[in-house]
From TrEMBL:
Gene3D superfamilies membership: 6.10.140.850, Winged helix-like DNA-binding domain superfamily/Winged helix DNA-binding domain
Keywords: DNA-binding, Transcription, Transcription regulation
Signal peptide positions (record): none
SUPFAM superfamilies xrefs: Winged helix' DNA-binding domain (SSF46785)
Pfam families membership: Penicillinase_R
Protein name, entry field: CopY family transcriptional regulator
Single GO biological process annotation from the record: negative regulation of DNA-templated transcription
MF-aspect GO terms: DNA binding
Family indicated by similarity: Belongs to the BlaI transcriptional regulatory family.
Length: 131
């Protein structure tokens, strides 16, 4: 996926398992995290400080995370919300379909009634907003 502000082409590749775990921790955090705070947040994985630092630096370089210097340590935060990320993935998946109508039909068929109702509400709202 192409990330805004990306500094290398790595943003076009899917995240690896550790990068995904780190992004999940960033998305779940109430605010920016230092490397030490990230290590503590992921204590169940028993990761080395340098491993987490490297992953966060890579995510920053790829455009997935922003960082600010706070005293002597960087504080990292996601560049986009998890919902923005998922929405972009969905849009990219749809745009890659040869038959977008069929792809949408399969997507809708896989929805729960509650998901379909939420989609219907969003589409109705979009119709009202564009009038």
């Amino acid at each position: 996926m192409t990330r805004p502000g990306r500094k290398d082409s790595g943003g076009d590749r899917p995240l690896g398992p550790l990068e995904t775990a780190v992004m999940n921790a960033l998305w779940e955090a109430p605010g920016p995290l230092t490397v030490r705070q990230m290590v503590d947040a992921m204590a169940d994985r028993d990761l080395a400080y340098t491993t987490v630092m490297t992953v966060l630096d890579n995510l920053h370089r790829k455009g997935w995370a922003e960082r600010d210097l706070a005293r002597r340590a960087y504080r990292y935060r996601p560049t986009a919300s998890r919902e923005e990320h998922v929405g972009q993935l969905m849009a990219e998946a749809l745009s890659s379909a040869a038959d977008q109508h069929a792809a949408l039909a399969r997507f809708v068929d896989a929805m729960t009634p509650a998901e379909a109702a939420a989609l219907r509400e969003l589409l109705d709202q979009r119709g009202r907003d564009s009038s």
